[in-house]
Specification:
about 300 residues; alpha+beta; 9 helices; 14 strands; globular
Length: about 300
């Protein structure tokens, strides 16, 4: 995953592999012998041996075609994004990573071609939603499947404190939601159909990877040689810096305390093991792949263990 982030920063195509089969062969052998020789002086001998061998074989296949398109280019469903928030992932982190806009309020983009700063209202919205999330007064309800498909609804609990109500008021005003409604349908898109909808223009996995690759601290010599684009500066909100979602460092020398590291174009790229936020984001993107997957007939990889 880290190598693909680095490759995307240099406009190289990403390559993903999946495990198609796992074959493990075990071999256990033993030999024991006992011998007694009656002679002068008496000679006794005991001997034995044990051998063990394991030969695992893992087969990887290139992720391509329709499965590649689904895994990398399908936008993450809005209901899945809100489910992550309900499960306890910080709303501020999840929304900054996975959405381009909410009801037309744009998120920041650090991509080379379409980079732009966030609408200040976006940061106000995610901070208010984060506080409501931590109060435990927001949830998701999934409607039953119909011929038009199921839908997800974000629900505000009715009984709350004045502090939470203030945050809810901020959310309603920024998104243009009905001031008295407590249930809002989640839809994919830029513009909501009415004041009881929340339109989320979500990102695909490829979008997320491109965004994260934009914050890599690439060597200045490669920027000067036009091998990659400069790293966009950090945004500001209410006079303070908005920290990047992930910090990926680079250098000639191999790092001594890295969470994960790769070598590319003569440089090392790594995430520091002491950078908890970056490690968490790296874990989330590994998990997000499952949100765009659809069940397939072939099932999971097969484990074959011969016995005799």
């Amino acid at each position: 995953m880290l190598m693909n982030l680095v490759k995307l920063r240099y406009a190289d195509p990403p390559v993903f592999l999946e495990v198609s089969s796992v074959i493990s062969q075990y071999e256990l052998g033993s030999l024991a012998n006992l011998g007694l020789t009656f002679s002068a002086p008496d000679v006794q001998s005991v001997g034995g041996s044990v051998s063990y061998a394991e030969r695992p074989t893992i087969t990887y296949t290139l992720l391509s075609g329709d499965k590649f398109a689904r895994s990398l280019m399908t936008p993450i469903p809005p209901a899945s994004i809100m489910s992550l928030i309900e499960a306890g992932w910080p709303a501020e982190l999840v929304l900054r990573m996975t959405v381009n806009s909410v009801n037309g309020i744009r998120n920041r983009s650090g991509a080379a071609l379409r980079g732009h700063e966030a609408d200040p209202r976006f940061y106000r919205f995610i901070e208010a939603l984060g506080r409501v999330q931590r109060s435990g007064t927001v949830g998701i309800r999934v409607e039953p499947e119909t011929k038009n498909g199921g839908s997800a609804v974000m629900v505000f609990a009715r009984e709350t404190s004045e502090k939470v109500e203030r945050d809810r008021k901020v959310i309603r005003e920024i998104l243009g939601l009905n001031a008295k409604a407590t249930e809002f349908r989640l839809v994919f898109g830029v513009v909501p159909g009415n004041d009881r909808e929340i339109a989320i223009l979500s990102r695909s996995m490829l979008d997320i990877l491109v965004e994260l690759s934009g914050s890599i601290e690439v060597p200045k010599v490669y920027v000067a040689e036009k091998r990659t684009h400069p790293t966009r500066g950090e945004g500001y909100f209410q006079g303070r810096k908005v920290q990047p979602l992930m910090r990926i460092h680079s250098g000639r020398d191999k790092p001594s305390d890295a969470f994960v590291m790769v070598r590319n174009r003569g440089y090392w790229y790594w995430i520091d093991d002491r950078d908890f936020i970056s490690k968490r984001v790296f874990g989330i993107i590994m998990f997000l792949f499952t949100l765009t997957e659809k069940p397939e007939k072939e099932g999971t990889p097969i484990v074959t263990i011969p016995t005799r």
